[in-house]
Amino acid sequence: MADAFITLPAEAASFVKNGGRDVDTSKLPATAPGERVRLLDTGGDDVGLAISDPENQRLRVMATPDDGFPRIDGALLGWRVERALAWRSQLGLPGPEHAYRLLHHAGDGVPGFTCDVLGPWAVLYAYSAALLPFARQLAEAVCGFARLRGVVVKVRARGGAAEVTQEVVGEAPPERHVALERGVPFEIHALGGLNVGLFTDMREHRVTLARHAPGRTVLNLFSYTGALSLACARAGAASVTSVDTSDGVQAWARGNFARSELTDPARWRFETGDAVRFLARAAKTRERYDLVLVDPPTFSTARGKPWTLERDYPELIAQAAAVIPDGGLLWLAANTHELGSLVRLAQRGLRGRGAIVDQGGLPPDYPTLAAQPRDRYLQVISLRL
Ligand SMILES: C[S@@+](CC[C@H](N)C(=O)[O-])C[C@H]1O[C@@H](n2cnc3c(N)ncnc32)[C@H](O)[C@@H]1O
Q1: Most buried residue, 58, 182, 280, 297, by CB count within 10 Å?
Q2: 248-268 mean pLDDT
Q3: Which domain holds residue 101?
Q4: 274 in contact with ligand 1, CB cutoff 6 A
């Protein structure tokens, strides 16, 4: 069957010709979910081959004429995986049991898809159900080229549906398995929900934290499975207190600490509860921490009313700073594509206190296109107070 085709308006055609791969479809004719679409410019010349993703209002451009592929098929997707793997090999990331990002959206020529290798299994995300058939083909290629036992394919639908649609290509993983990041073991629940236990985008920040942590009393708010806490603990922190609202992730974090033989409850504390309430209590009892990590979800309803970054982060930053003595460090992360917006939030919370000593964002296994600057979604700064 011949692919559908669309003639792109001049602006959209030039976006693709200048490297863009996620074409906004709000002003384009409708195409069926998952349909392969040939993109033409107003002169009738081929601009690219795309997959229709109406749920996200996007045409996902998988190839341009320069790539030399006549259609979107296993050969093209396999070539994308091979190239992505070559870059990760150059970075020294693949290896037995290793954890790293193998495919990252448009930066790897696969807009709408990501894939984390987590030891012998990988988790591949498709950003809508329409992309699933292509996700399966990508998973086959990932399994073969990266020599994995299997790949769990998950649909990451808009708005974060409660039920995760998933299927396995190759051998199914056990309920729990272990992956290594720089030799540190982390428990992975590949068949669990959307998040499987380790955010690979924080790898380089764990290295930075290890430099700041020795001898410090550390407080990690929104600690999830304790990966940032563990980086500090292994680096020789005097103590690490991890705070998260979920009992389940606290047990998981304890397990990760135990795998690193860190089991002293006097030094490695896990507090189940709300981060803001924890800080209010700590301020009252005059607890002090030399290094406080704050990595809140962009949006949370943990305390009944919705919490948003823009409105509520400065107050959280002020509360965190209140438990840090002069000379201590505040480490802040936010899901935003602009460093400036995180710095402004920090400024509002700190009112002149502190100097930025480190800044960073996504690691090199998270390539993003210059044509799509909003894809650089992570910002991190450390401030010395
Ligand atoms: C983005 S994850 C943090 C990731 C973590 N910093 C890491 O790198 O592994 C967000 C975590 O915040 C927790 N959380 C959400 N609202 C919270 C709140 N009000 N207080 C404490 N933890 C909260 C969630 O349970 C989840 O584990």
Answers
A1: 58
A2: 98
A3: 74-188
A4: yes
Q: Using most ligand atoms within 8 A of CB, pick from 203, 205, 225, 245 the residue to mutate for ligand 1.
A: 245
Task: State how far the alpha carbon of 233 is from the alpha carbons of 7, 18, 158, 270, in Å.
Answer: 56, 46, 36, 13
Q: How many residues does the chain have?
A: 385
Q: What is the pLDDT of residues 19-70, one digit of tens each?
A: 999 999 999 999 999 999 999 999 999 999 999 999 999 999 999 999 999 9
Is the CA virtual torsion 19, 22, 26, 32 positive or negative?
positive
Quick one: pLDDT at residue 4? 93
Beta-sheet strands, E only, within 91-238: 99-104, 113-118, 121-126, 150-155, 165-170, 177-181, 184-188, 217-221
Asked whether residue 178 falls in the same domain as residue 123, the answer is yes
| Same domain flag for 51 and 166 | no
Atom 4 of ligand 1: nearest residue by CA position? 224
Asked if residue 202 has its Cβ within 6 Å of ligand 1, the reply is yes
pLDDT in tens, 131-166: 999 999 999 999 999 999 999 999 998 766 667 899
pLDDT of residue 298: 81
Name 7's bridge partners.
40
CATH code of residue 329: 3.40.50.150
Answer yes or no: do 167 and 280 share one domain.
no
Mean pLDDT of the chain: 95
Q: At 84, which CATH number?
A: 3.30.750.80
Position 352 pLDDT exceeds 70: yes
Ligand 1 closest atom vs CA 333: 6
pLDDT at 2 (0 to 100):
54
**Which two three-digit tokens encode residue 338?**
């602009």
Residue 194 Cα to ligand 1 midpoint, Å, equals: 14
Residue from 222, 241, 247, 270 whose mutation best tests the ligand 1 pocket (most atoms within 8 A of CB): 222
C-beta 341 within 6 A of ligand 1: no
